[in-house]
């Protein structure tokens, strides 16, 4: 397959991919290095200069490719090479063409320019190689990213890197979130190697959200350069929201604003903080059937030790809180709180809830004095959006 970038009358340029049933056009990019006149296909003195110069090595991938016509005007500029999809622009007088994004490290590129003068077209070319950095920055996980999965309207986007990020601002600028139904959002760094995106209000339901990271060739600080670009598509499903009052022992589930079911439950007995179900805005994180629950910080024989297998378990915090089947407490469901902190429901209600659950669905609980911490699981909605944005490197 052959890759080539052409410049048309609009001043934009595209990457032509030849060898199939027809040409495919995508946008392509650039880098920097020493300048030179390049080489004329005819062997005569060139009428244009190309930067980086022909034969240049260890070219920094975060600099531009630039082509200047000394005489005449530029007609076409082609860049052949693997890696990043890049863009560039022709000046209004067609004397200069300049790329406007970075190149893939450790890659060979050939730039070919056609210059029109005195009614004739001449061709100038330059082949160079970008540097092989000692360190590269890569995205090793984007969540959610399960093919075919629909997620809830509260779902954050998690991005994890292969190393701690030195220049967080530069990296954050390279991250893009593009929903079909626009809504404001912002990134927050929760670890040296992890950043999370949250919207100001819940996602509008039933849409696709595109995540892209234009990392290839980006100077990420600390001697690291971005290894490659990343793209993911996230599908937002129905707006499923559960609201429950722990003191009233019932929760109501809605989908797209319509009531689906009211479920009686038994929550934490409240005898200790550990056994008190947290109030606040939670997100449904994962589910399992069955799940083995064991008392934290205790071993067999200790007071309060338990180890219990439960069915249809949907987790909504990192402190061990689930909605799950509890046939042993059906008599208390709807009237008393007797659990160790989970939301106990009947087997039939547990299965129904388990089956409709989407990661990122919202569960809002009230009625206790134990508020869920914003960083307990995915409880990011406990922070106001103004507070959330303070964790951005661009705030």
**Any idea how many domains?**
3
Q: Which class best fits the helix and strand makeup?
A: mainly beta
Under CATH at level 1, the class of the largest domain stands as Mainly Beta
| Poorly predicted segments | 1-45
Gap between N and C termini: 44 Å
Number of helices: 3
Share of residues in strands: 35-45%
Please tally the β strands and state the result. Answer: 33
Principal-axis shape: elongated
- Helix content percent band: under 10%
Annotated CATH homologous superfamily of the largest domain: L,D-transpeptidase catalytic domain-like
Instruction: Walk across the major sheet and give the strand order.
Output: 25-24-23-33-26
> If you compute it from the alpha carbons, what radius of gyration comes out, rounded to the nearest whole angstrom?
28 Å
Largest sheet: 5 strands, mixed
Which second-level CATH architecture of the largest domain applies? Beta Barrel
The average pLDDT score comes to: 88
CATH topology of the largest domain: L,D-transpeptidase catalytic domain-like
């Amino acid at each position: 397959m052959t890759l080539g970038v052409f410049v048309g009358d609009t001043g934009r340029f595209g990457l032509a991919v030849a060898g199939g049933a027809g040409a495919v056009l995508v946008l392509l990019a650039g880098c920097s290095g020493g300048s030179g006149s390049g080489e004329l296909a005819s062997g005569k003195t060139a009428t244009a200069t190309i930067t980086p110069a022909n034969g240049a090595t260890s070219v920094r991938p975060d600099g531009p490719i630039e082509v200047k016509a000394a005489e005449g005007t530029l007609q076409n500029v082609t860049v052949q090479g693997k890696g990043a999809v890049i863009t560039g622009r022709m000046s209004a007088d067609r004397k200069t063409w300049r790329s406007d994004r970075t190149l893939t490290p450790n890659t060979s590129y050939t730039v070919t320019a056609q210059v029109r003068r005195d009614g004739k077209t001449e061709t100038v070319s330059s082949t160079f190689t970008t540097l092989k950095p000692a360190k590269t920055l890569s995205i090793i996980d984007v969540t959610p990213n399960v093919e075919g999965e629909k997620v809830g309207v509260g779902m954050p986007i998690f991005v994890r890197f292969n190393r701690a990020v030195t220049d967080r601002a530069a990296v954050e600028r390279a991250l893009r979130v593009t929903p079909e139904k626009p809504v404001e959002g912002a990134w927050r760094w929760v670890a040296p190697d992890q950043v999370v995106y949250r919207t100001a209000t819940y996602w509008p339901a039933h849409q696709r959200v595109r995540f892209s990271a234009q990392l290839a060739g980006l100077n990420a600080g600390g001697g690291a350069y971005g290894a490659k670009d990343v793209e993911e598509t996230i599908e937002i499903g129905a707006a499923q929201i559960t609201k429950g009052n722990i003191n009233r022992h019932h929760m109501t589930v809605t989908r797209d604003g319509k009531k689906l079911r009211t479920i009686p439950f038994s929550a934490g007995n409240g005898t200790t903080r550990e056994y008190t179900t947290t109030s606040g805005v939670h997100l449904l994180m994962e589910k399992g059937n069955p799940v083995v629950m064991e008392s934290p910080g205790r071993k067999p024989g200790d007071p309060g030790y338990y180890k219990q297998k439960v069915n249809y378990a949907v987790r909504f915090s990192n402190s061990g809180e689930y909605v799950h089947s509890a046939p042993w407490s059906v008599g208390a469901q709807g009237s008393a709180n007797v659990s160790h902190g989970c939301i106990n429901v009947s087997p039939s209600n547990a299965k129904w809830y388990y089956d409709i659950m989407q990661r990122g669905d919202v569960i809002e609980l009230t009625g206790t004095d134990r508020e869920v911490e914003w960083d307990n699981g995915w409880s990011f909605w406990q922070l106001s959006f103004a507070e959330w944005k303070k964790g951005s490197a661009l705030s």
